[in-house]
Amino acid sequence: MDLDVFVTAHHAEWDRLEHLLRRGRRLTGAEADELVTLYQRTSTHLSLIQTTTPDPQLTGRLTQLVARARSTVTGTRRASWRDAARFLTAGFPAAVYRSRRWWIPTALVSIAVSVVIGWWIGTHPEVQSALAAPDALRQMTRPGGEYETYYSSHPAASFAAQVWTNNAQATAMCLVLGAFLGIPVLWILLLNMLNLGVGIGLMSSAGRLDTFLGLILPHGLLELTAVFVAAGTGLRLGWTVVDPGPRTRRAALAEQGRAALGMAIGLALVLFVSGMIEGFVTPSGLPTWARIALGITAELAFLAYVYLLGGRAARAGEAGDVEETGRSAELPTAA
Description:
By secondary structure, the protein is mainly alpha-helical. It has helices at residues 3-23, 29-51, 56-74, 81-98, 100-122, 125-131, 134-141, 146-149, 156-177, 183-205, 209-242, 249-281, 288-315. The longest helix is centred in the last third of the chain and has 34 residues, at 209-242. The model is unreliable at 324-335 (pLDDT under 50).
């Protein structure tokens, strides 16, 4: 393509588009239609120039024109309560539901690994002695020991806030680091399951596994589910790098990345609930059965939220992505 001829043929359209953009809100109906048409043409011109004879100065001008025109055509959109309601009732649960083929296997494998680690530690005294001295192990596992007092060692409100912050950071790391082929996600999962497995092993060797589960289950069911959802989503994001499907890798990663960002916000709310349970219910004087029942209720409520609201929204086409007007325009790709 002869760039000089192309510029001569179309520069009048670009000048006209720039003039209409300067007019702003004072456009007539016919001028508004003309602006939309010129915006579409200029977008095509920009694409042609970028793929055939890229010129930095001309590309910069047209990129600015297209961005300004797109902003004018679509309008500046502000988040509203409607967006928050849509996110909570459709976007977030649908994203979790659509990722279930990743996070459910992740949960099952992780729990199995944790149980195996717990069995190995609990049945091998030499492994226990390698972890800590006998006196230190007794201090951790005895009645009123460190495993029990951990949940009441700080004021409930500050403890809940600390737990929430730590867990939210862990889930955010799973979601963000998933783009690195999911390898960091596997490491984060291993550390979490190792920590859980050590507790299971040490407390079972002391004959106090029931006490340990009574402390873990009230908040741990919901907390671990959030971690598994984040890890599964991170692994899915990592697989997108390997196999983006029929879309370009950039488009596929953009879609999955936007959904993962929304997932991080939603999971922070879920972890806030589990943090409140851990701060106020786990160390409370309630009977063990009552504390566990509250944890199971919270877990079942979340799963019902995902499978009922999320399943319905996913079947209606919701993917957890931002609305179409908030996405970058994409050129069609060949199948």
